[in-house]
Protein: RmlC-like cupin domain superfamily
Amino acid sequence: MGDQKPRIIVEKNPSQARLDELKFKSWPKWGCSPGKYHLKYEAEEICYIVRGKVKVYPKPPSSASSSSSDAEVEWCVEFGAGDIVTFPKGLSCTWDVSLSVDKHYIFLSS
Structure:
């Protein structure tokens, strides 16, 4: 299939109906201060960002072309307060937090 980038899905300005459907207020909370964090997702996670601002840099799947760092353009996904974000199972990434984050999250079992 070629090198498939893990999909991080960001829903900007979700509707109240979508928020009600998720019932995110019953989910556990997690927070962090500005800095860089290396995370690996063992399960798919959906989270609602209550506050903060983040750039996530996914690690590309390890492949033979990893030696040509010039060709690999580092891509990132940005999100912040009010966004719903879905992280795929198996994703390794770096969170670059510019504003302290508070989020509600839930892991989905397949």
Remarks:
- The mean pLDDT is 88.
- The radius of gyration is 15 Å.
